Amino acid sequence: MAATQTPPGECPQCWQHAHDKSIHRRLKPRQDCPACVDHMVNGCPNPVPKRKRCWW
After folding, report:
1. Which residues touch 23 (CB under 8 Å, ≥6 apart)?
2. Which has fewest Cβ within 10 Å: 32, 35, 40, 47?
3. What's the mean pLDDT in 23-50?
């Protein structure tokens, strides 16, 4: 099961597709996920939240 919130600095789509196995369950063996392929070719369409900066 995927985490409910994407950690700071991570792309929400990348995070969800990497950690939620149910997304890719419907794919056949060795079949690429169209959303993942599009994401790899065109980059992250969603703005990536910034990491919280800390002075130490």
Report:
1. 16, 17, 33
2. 47
3. 84
Q: How far is CA 16 from CA 2, 33, 55, in A?
A: 6, 13, 29
Q: Can you spell out the DSSP letters for 30-46?
A: TPPPHHHHHHHHH---S
Q: How far apart are the first and last CA of the chain?
A: 32
* pLDDT of amino acid 49: 61
Give the C-alpha separation, 22 to 8, whole Å.
23
pLDDT tens digits for range 1-31: 445 677 777 888 888 888 888 989 999 999 9
- Indicate the SS3 state at residue 55: coil
pLDDT value at residue 5: 79
